[in-house]
Write a structure and sequence with these properties.
This protein is mainly alpha-helical and 82 residues long. The chain has four helices and no strands.
């Protein structure tokens, strides 16, 4: 099990506060922008892809954000944050 999968497993039982969600999203946004289209982005994709297999648009977004950021249609990107 990779370190990323290990962290997710430990964190999955815990409810996050609104503040922690906001901070985690900010960290994720920062990391995604720096790893998108790089070997690190591909590694993150490989670690997460099983979680989103067969789920649309989740799998497509994972692919676009980590492996092929040039394919993102920013004007029509709609992510439900509820």
């Amino acid at each position: 099990m990779s370190e990323l999968e290990n962290v997710h497993e430990v964190q999955s039982d815990k409810r996050l506060s609104k503040a922690e969600c906001e901070v985690r999203l900010a960290i994720a946004d920062y990391a995604i922008r720096r790893m998108a289209g790089t070997p690190a982005g591909y590694e993150a994709f490989q670690a997460l892809v099983a979680q989103f297999q067969g789920r649309y648009p989740h799998h497509k977004l994972l692919t676009q954000l980590l492996i092929a950021p040039e394919c993102i249609d920013v004007e029509n990107l709609s992510i439900d944050r509820d």
